[in-house]
Design brief:
The structure is a single chain. The protein is of the alpha/beta class and 324 residues long. The protein has 3 domains: 41 residues, 434 Repressor (Amino-terminal Domain) (Orthogonal Bundle); 127 residues, Response regulator (Rossmann fold), CATH 3.40.50.2300; 130 residues, Response regulator (Rossmann fold, 3-Layer(aba) Sandwich), CATH 3.40.50.2300. Helix content is 44%, strand content 16%. The chain has 12 helices and 12 strands. Strands 2-1-3-4-5-11 form a 6-stranded parallel sheet, with helices on both faces. A 6-stranded mixed sheet has the order 7-6-8-9-10-12, sandwiched between helices. Helix 7 links the parallel strand 3 and strand 4. The longest helix is centred in the last third of the chain and has 16 residues. The relative contact order is 0.12.
Amino acid sequence: MHDVARLAKVSRQTVSRAVNDKGEIDPGTKARVLEAARLLDYRPSRFARGLVRKGAVTVGLVIPDLMNPYFPEVAAGVLEAAEERGWQVVVCDTRSDGARECDALDVLSHQADAVVGYCLNPDAVLAKHLGGLPMVLLERGPEQTRFGAVGIDVAAGVEQGIEHLVRAGHRRIGMLDGTSPGVFGPRREAFLTQAGRHGLPVDAEWVVYCAEHSVAGGERGMDLLLDARPEVTAVFGFNDLIAVGAMRAARRRGLRLPDDMAVLGFDGLALGELVEPALTTLHLDKRRLGRLAVEQVARLRAGEEPLSGADAWVIPELVLRASA
């Protein structure tokens, strides 16, 4: 505000009147102030206003795909925790697109007091579009970002899952990954680490990328994996939807589950209990993930240190059903 006032050659009080659309200001002066604000990319911070003016807190929730049943469960946790505090939540669906993500943050920088979300862009890009708002990133560890964070201990979960498959006698285990080629995501990293730990014969052909995080994407990925490595007897899916697609593709080829092919998912969706056979999965407490994110926002707004260490992580738990 000081910089805008200096550029427009007016007082800070005049800047405040102009940006808050107060009537007691000359139209020409207001136009000059708003032009200076535009040139300097100045936006009033709702967070800063909230320090001096009490009112409802609004949290922006950035979700990559509301059609994926995983994310509404996380959103439910955010909504529950926010409602308990009397806060409001505004939801934006970015469709897993970095440009849409930036557009959403531009809007939320004017409408929200803090942002919680799944974001593709690096910290520097996010900061540019946040307008100074506090932010909590989901599924990034506290050491992986300069913002607040709630992480998932993927390594601990995958260790449980691969240990179970190996104990069941599987040595030829493939993976259907959802991380883009060239990006070494934590689920693939954990899978390869466990494959090495157990001495499994895994190379690049044992990991197939599924461009769509969906049942159809899992079907296509499983077909590619079985074409390349027909000797596979078990597969680890990036998420439950991909794992269900893998099951469909395996059964279409005449493979019996879990006798000929074991399938392990990751997420713990309610959907996994409805398919036949029921899906063995690494279950995440998704509502807790959302609630922890709101707790992080509350701490940031209060000027407290965010949760860290084990308190800022959610650990997957192996749920044994009939597919593996």
